[in-house]
Amino acid sequence: MLVTLKEILSESVAKKYAVPALNGHDFFTAQGCLLACEQMNRPLILMFAGDFTFPADFRQDVHLRMLLEMARSAKVPVCVMIDHAGSYELCMRAIHYGCGGVMIDGSTLPFEENVALVGKVVEAAHACGVSVEAEIGHVGGYEGTPDEGIAKPQFYTKPEEAERFANLTGVDALAVAFGSNHGPYQGTPHLDIPRLTEIRDRVGDLPLVLHGGSGLPDEEFSKAVAGGINKVNYISGMMINCADAMREFSNAQAGKRLTSRQMLEVGMESVVSETRHILEVFNTQTLTIPVSETETVTARRFQ
Ligand SMILES: [Zn+2]
C-alpha cells in the first residue's frame, strides 16, 4: 500500500521506533528491501535521489513510477519519497510524479532562508496531501568530499532552533544533526544523545530523522531510536555491502560463466538479510492504524 511520509511515521513517536529509509535507486535493491519488510510485516520508506542527477536518458520519471507501482502492490505500507531536494521546483516535480513525501534540504542556508524555503514547500505539498521532511543543523559529508567521514559539531542542531523551526514551518518530519555523517565514517562515530533527547523534548510528537546511518554501530542506532529518532536514512552502507556480496560471489565463480541476473540476485539476497537485521535494530513495528484517505490524494492518484 502506497502511503505518505506522515502516515508511515504516525505511530513511531509514541511507540519509540524508527522506520528504515532505504535505497530505491535500482529494482533489485528496492525489491530486496520490500521482500524483507513483507516477510516481517513492517513498513518501508523507499528513497530516490532528490537532485535528479542521473543522465537525462536514465528515465528517472519511469524509474520513479516503477517504485510507486511496487509500493501500491506491496503487502505493507510503503512511502516513496525524494531525498535532499535542493529546490522548491524539484519538490513540485516529485509531487507531480506521485511521491508521498519530499525532503527539502535548505540546511546550508541561514535559518530564516531555510524557514522561508521549507514553509513554501510545506504550503504547496500539504495542499496536495503530500508530507514534507526538512533539515535543521547540517549533516555533512559525502563520499569524496573534503569532510568525508567526520561529523562537525559546529553544525549540530541547536535544540532551541529545532523547536522554532518546527513551529514556523509546519514540517511533518525533521532531520537533525547530532554526530552522524553521510557516507562511510573515519574512526568510530559517537552520537550526541543528550542533544537528541533535548530536541525530542522540545518538538513534541514530531518525528525526527537520522541521516548518515551507514557505518554507525548497532548500539549507536539503538541509542538514537531510544532517544527519539523515528526514521533512519540507511543507503550507502547497504549499497557497499551489496556490492561486496556480489564481488565475493564473482570471485568464487572465477573461470565459470556468470550472468548479470545471477549477480543481481546475490546482491538482492544481501539486501534482504541486511534489511531484516536493521528492522530489528531500529525496533521497527507493524503499523496498526488504518491510513487516512485524505492524506494520500496526490500520492495515489496514478492508481
Ligand atoms: Zn541525507
Question: Which characteristics define this entry?
Answer:
8 strands; single chain; alpha/beta; 303 residues; 10 helices; TIM Barrel; eight-stranded parallel barrel; binds zinc ion
Structure notes:
- This protein is of the alpha/beta class and 303 residues long.
- It has a single domain, classed as Aldolase class I (TIM Barrel, Alpha-Beta Barrel), CATH 3.20.20.
- Helices cover 43% and strands 14% of the residues.
- The protein is built from 10 helices and 8 strands.
- Strands 1-2-3-4-5-6-7-8 form an 8-stranded parallel barrel, surrounded by 8 helices.
- Helix 2 (27-40) packs parallel to helix 3.
- The chain starts with a helix and ends in a 22-residue tail after the last helix.
- The model has no long low-confidence stretch (mean pLDDT 90).
- Bound molecules: zinc ion.
Summarize the structure.
By secondary structure, this protein is of the alpha/beta class.
Topology:
Elements: H1 5-8, E1 19-23, H2 27-40, E2 44-49, H3 60-73, E3 78-85, H4 88-97, E4 101-104, H5 111-127, E5 131-136, H6 159-169, E6 173-176, H7 193-202, E7 208-210, H8 218-227, E8 229-233, H9 236-252, H10 260-281
Parallel strand pairs: 1-2, 1-8, 2-3, 3-4, 4-5, 5-6, 6-7, 7-8
Zinc ion binds at residues 84, 139, 182, 211, 233.
